[in-house]
Amino acid sequence: MVDSARWAPRAAALLLGAVVPGLPALPSETADVNATFLQPFLTYTTPTQWTFALNTESTYDWEAEQWSVPVNANVSKLMRFGTQLVSLGGGVRYWADSPDTGAEGFGLRITVTLLFPR
């Protein structure tokens, strides 16, 4: 288990943020690419190292004027295997909007993240 005196947060933490890069129009042999990617997120971490997250990884295609909007709900737990800190998690994804030929319905996500704190 994690040495809570050294690695655990002293209190629960709530984080709200977003990643918003833009991809400029790029010429291509098959089609022009002109897209915007939005990743707003909300996470809550408990004093016992559980993290609950809600986010979307949305893309807007300016050429096709279409959205792709997956909504993700994830849960992860900080653990220790020997001396290695690891975050193990999983979640569900729902496609709130996508092109007619795009993804739809529900999906699952499993995450394993190795951590190397200083």
Q: Can you walk through the features of this model?
A:
With 118 residues, this protein is mainly beta. It has one domain (4-21, 32-115). The protein has one helix at 4-7, and strands at residues 13-19, 22-26, 33-45, 50-56, 58-61, 66-81, 84-97, 106-115. Strands 1, 2, 3, 4, 5, 6, 7 and 8 form an eight-stranded antiparallel beta sheet that branches. Strand 3 and strand 4 (50-56) form a beta hairpin.
Mean pLDDT: 84
Query: Which class best fits the helix and strand makeup?
Result: mainly beta
The helix fraction, in percent, is under 10%
Total count of strands = 8
Structural Rg: 18 Å
Integer count of domains: 1
* Sheet with the most strands, sense and barrel status: 8 strands, antiparallel
What's the tally of helices? 1
**Fraction in beta strands:** over 45%
Low-confidence residue ranges: 1-5
Succession of helices and strands: HEEEEEEEE
Could you give the distance between the termini?
18 Å
**Tertiary shape:** elongated
Briefly characterize the structure:
The protein is mainly β and 118 residues long.
Give the secondary structure arrangement, pairings included.
Elements: H1 4-7, E1 13-19, E2 22-26, E3 33-45, E4 50-56, E5 58-61, E6 66-81, E7 84-97, E8 106-115
Antiparallel strand pairs: 1-3, 2-3, 3-4, 3-5, 4-6, 5-6, 6-7, 7-8
